[in-house]
TrEMBL record:
GO molecular function, one term: glycosyltransferase activity
Keyword list, A-Z: Glycosyltransferase, Transferase
Protein name per the record: Glycosyl transferase family 2
InterPro entries, per database record: Glyco_trans_2-like, Nucleotide-diphossugar_trans
Species annotation: Pseudobacteroides cellulosolvens ATCC 35603 = DSM 2933
Length: 333
């Protein structure tokens, strides 16, 4: 018998997109659903639209709450979810009609706690998806964590595009008041899962709009939140004894720091940003105190002293890695 899947959709100022999103869920080939619409104090007609969906489909439940942000809305949905499994969807995105059925079947057949799919970024609705060369990857929890610095980083770190066993959220919630909220808890969820399965099939349509939280180009505040989350992840990896992965994670934080420094230098904002500079001095002290790879310590020190030079070095390094990978793939064909 198919288990109940709870679909949690935070709703805020999306009356232009909400109909498309909810209809894509109600049209799923997997029918045993509970659709939780969390009206996060939206000032437009979204609340009335949510109530309208509940009237036409008994699977829809609506929460009306004061505005608390995306994390708070997701957490509210988790609290009342009745399903054995959870999936999250942002209200300006939509999903393929077989999204839940395919992920659920993957999760059950591989005895995984998380099933994830790929997605497609789009600013138009008339899309023809490429369904050839679909790959299925099964990861242990440690292998899934390694992907947070690997090829499938984005689809594994985001909250949406997945089905989770509800037990994973027994003690885990999204951090309220922070952007890049999924960065803060992805590693906890992956570590807690006994197994993760990922399909490269694109089944979620990630709508690109300028007024969304993440759709505003280079946002310094958002990037700083990202570095905070990644540094917390590195500390967690250190606690569980994954030192090599901890060092890779610190490299990611350093690379984002370089992007922030470069942007602020271009806009003559760096000299007065004592908070940013002090934050990375603290990280430098942590690196100095911890039993970290000496190469990592030197690399970070050089980033602090010569951010522009190290930015160029990082770009050349990642370009060389891509070139090497490309040559290896060609030889293996």
């Amino acid at each position: 018998m198919n288990n109940l899947v709870s679909v949690i959709i935070p709703v805020y100022k999306v009356e232009e997109y909400l109909n498309r999103c909810v209809k894509s869920v109600l049209a799923q080939t997997y029918r045993n659903l509970e659709v939780i619409l969390v009206n996060d104090g939206s000032p437009d007609c979204c609340g009335e639209m949510c109530d309208g969906f509940a009237k036409i489909d008994r699977r829809v439940r609506v929460i009306h709450k004061k505005n608390g942000g995306l994390s708070d809305a997701r957490n509210a949905g988790v609290e009342i979810a009745s399903g054995e499994y959870l999936t999250f969807l942002d209200s300006d995105d939509w999903v393929h009609e077989e999204y839940i059925e395919k992920l659920y079947n993957l999760l059950i057949s591989t005895e995984s706690d998380i099933a994830a799919c790929n997605f497609i970024r789009t600013s138009r609705e008339d899309i023809s998806l490429n369904t050839s060369n679909i790959e299925i990857h099964e990861f242990s929890n440690i292998e899934a964590l390694e992907q947070l610095t690997g090829k499938f980083y984005v689809p594994l770190v985001v909250a949406w595009g997945k089905i989770y066993h509800k037990d994973l959220f027994r003690t885990i919630r999204y951090p309220v008041g922070k952007v890049h909220e999924d960065e803060y808890i992805a590693h906890h969820l992956l570590f807690k899962a006994k197994k993760v399965v990922f399909t490269t099939e694109q089944m979620l349509y990630y709508w690109q709009r300028k007024d969304s939280i993440t759709g505003v180009g280079f946002n310094v505040s958002n990037r700083i939140y990202a570095t905070h989350a990644i540094i917390e992840r590195a500390a967690f990896l250190n606690e569980v004894g994954l030192t090599k992965l901890r060092n890779k994670t610190y490299k990611t934080a350093i690379y984002i720091y370089l992007q922030i420094v470069k942007y602020k230098k271009m806009n003559n904002e760096l000299k007065n940003d004592q908070d940013l500079l002090s934050q990375f001095k603290i990280l430098n002290l942590k690196l100095r105190e911890g039993n970290y790879n000496s190469n990592l310590k030197i690399r970070y020190k050089l980033c602090c002293i010569m951010p522009d030079v190290m930015n160029i070095a990082f770009k050349m390094y990642y370009k060389a890695i891509k070139l090497i990978k490309g040559n290896v793939e060609k030889r293996s064909v």
